[in-house]
Amino acid sequence: MSISTTYPLYAIAIGSNRRGRHGHPRAEVRAAIAALPNVLAVSRLIETAPVGPSLRRFTNSAVLLHSSETPPMMLARLKRIERDFGRRRGQRWSARVIDLDIVLWSGGAWRDATLCIPHIAFRTRDFVLHPLVQIAPLWRDPQTGRTIRQLAMRLDMVDRTRIRS
């Protein structure tokens, strides 16, 4: 990665598919980005199909930020932002005003009872990898050693194979 800082870096995935107090999902994502501290890079916003039972399309983005906070502290910050935006815990994969996930942390892997970094499913989610490849293409997954660019290309190849089958 070419961005240097004395504090750890975090890659945060952001998504919304429901109106909130900031307006439509694109406005919610932009407002969430503005609520995050020390943002160093922001991907373009993309529109994606929902995963699971939700019917509404998502607006997704990703940011890189630096922070002296530990991963549990960063998770607590993200959960506070979600609550402030009106997010309520409920059905998995349901419509949501905002979703903020820690995908990667420059400290490598982290695992405790409430948090797993890298995010457990990020390698299989184009709505996470495509925004990330825009802002951190050379960041290596601490578990596979592959760069974000390699993971995105690999996922694209799998998706093309499924379409042809």
How would you describe this structure to a colleague?
By secondary structure, the protein is an alpha+beta fold. It has helices at 25-35, 71-84, 126-135, 148-164, and strands at 9-16, 39-42, 46-48, 58-66, 99-105, 110-111, 116-117. The strands form two sheets. Strands 1, 2, 3, 4 and 5 form a five-stranded antiparallel β-sheet that branches. Strands 6-7 form a two-stranded antiparallel ribbon. β6 and β7 (116-117) form a beta hairpin.
Give the arrangement of secondary structure elements.
Elements (H helix, E strand, L loop, with lengths): L8 E8 L8 H11 L3 E4 L3 E3 L9 E9 L4 H14 L14 E7 L4 E2 L4 E2 L8 H10 L12 H17 L1
Antiparallel strand pairs: 1-4, 1-5, 2-4, 3-4, 6-7
Helix pairs in contact: 3-4
Summarize the model shown.
This protein is α+β, with helices and mostly antiparallel strands and 165 residues long. It is built from four helices and seven strands, in the order βαβββαβββαα.
